Amino acid sequence: MRLSTFIVDEMDQILACWDAYARTMTPAADGMSLAALRNHSEAMLRAVALDIDSPQTRNEQRDKSQGLATGDASGTAASEHGYFRQASNYTLLQLSAEFRALRASVLRLWLQRIERVTPIVLDDVIRFNEAIDQAVAESIVTYSAQATHSRDMFDAILGHDLRGPLSAMSLAGELLQKQDMPAAGVAALGVRVRSSALYMSSMVDDMLEFARIRLGQTRIPVHPQLADLESICSGAIADAASVHPGSRFELQMEGPREAWVDPNRMRQLLMNLLGNAGQHGARDRPVRLLVKVDELQTLFRVVNEGADIPSHLLHTIFEPLVRLQAEAESPTHRTTSLGLGLHIAREIAVSHGGSIDVRSEAQVTTFSVH
């Protein structure tokens, strides 16, 4: 049996091997559906089978083995696969490992049925390897381009978002130099300066925590103590309200008012969740912070109404830059977030021995911290 025929006829068996290996790509694969794990694997395999049967010159053969095949690679199954794997927070090593495993499983399954190695068999193996090499090159090019795009966008948004509060503080400084500034005006400028400073401080804190995690410190340090939850929650709401003055925040508490948490880290976690809700929620509806404490656990919920989070983003929403990237692709939403807040919130929850999850349906989004 020719290799191209085997790939088409035994597609289910090959995809089962792909699924089994894809499940090991943790933590990126955690929580991914079967469809997300398979992604464009079947389309890539069918393209490989078609390529094996297509005639080619020696120059075309050489170029393909080096990932230099002519033609527009954008939009191919392999190119799309690289794009979505980057969006799902796969590493470049994991992406290339998928193709290595695919190559090995296809050849292993097919060669078990080959009784004698003939020139045709050898030619099929060579053509198969060339096609896989080309697919690897296409997927890596798209993956790398998307990763670079995310980094560039991060830098652009950082500059854009810092310019706003810096301009406000600069203007406040100019106004305060006026001799006839009334006391009420000075107080109003003080509020504006504090709000701008808090906003920039929040951005810097998130970037520092992100850098700490990326540099190898696997957990954000926390120092739990018996803390006043009402004070923590009220402070987080005040912080979020300063950054999002157009949003309305409400606090509801049930049970004891104290729990063993790191007060500063918990305030940071809640401020990130509240800020996210204030940015993405409906302006005419309140953002609610619900706190429930009992003998088993402390539960925080941040609830906002508004557009649902797309289902394909739910399993990656806590990864850095994911929301940033998704919003950049939306023609109706202006990106104004570094895409780090939810990631930092998750890391703080994990450092407390807890977890965080999200549900978004029927125009209601709920982030729950256990």
Write the layout of secondary structure elements.
Blueprint: H1 3-9, H2 11-22, H3 34-38, H4 41-53, H5 58-65, H6 77-87, H7 92-111, H8 119-176, H9 183-214, E1 225-228, H10 229-243, E2 249-254, E3 258-261, H11 263-280, E4 287-293, E5 298-305, H12 322-328, H13 341-351, E6 356-361, E7 364-369
Parallel strand pairs: 2-4
Antiparallel strand pairs: 1-3, 4-5, 5-7, 6-7
Helix pairs in contact: 1-4, 2-7, 4-8, 5-8, 6-8, 7-8, 8-9, 10-11, 11-13
Describe this structure in words.
The protein starts with a helix and ends with a strand. The chain has 3 domains: 3-150, no CATH class; 155-214; 225-369, 2-Layer Sandwich (Heat Shock Protein 90). Helix 4 packs across helix 8 and helix 5 crosses helix 8. It has helices at residues 3-9, 11-22, 34-38, 41-53, 58-65, 77-87, 92-111, 119-176, 183-214, 229-243, 263-280, 322-328, 341-351; strands spanning 225-228, 249-254, 258-261, 287-293, 298-305, 356-361, 364-369. The relative contact order is 0.09. The protein is elongated and about 90 Å long. By secondary structure, it is an alpha+beta fold. The model is unreliable at 330-336 (pLDDT under 50). It is built from 13 helices and 7 strands. The chain has a 5-stranded mixed beta sheet with strand order 2-4-5-7-6. Strands 1-3 form a two-stranded antiparallel ribbon.
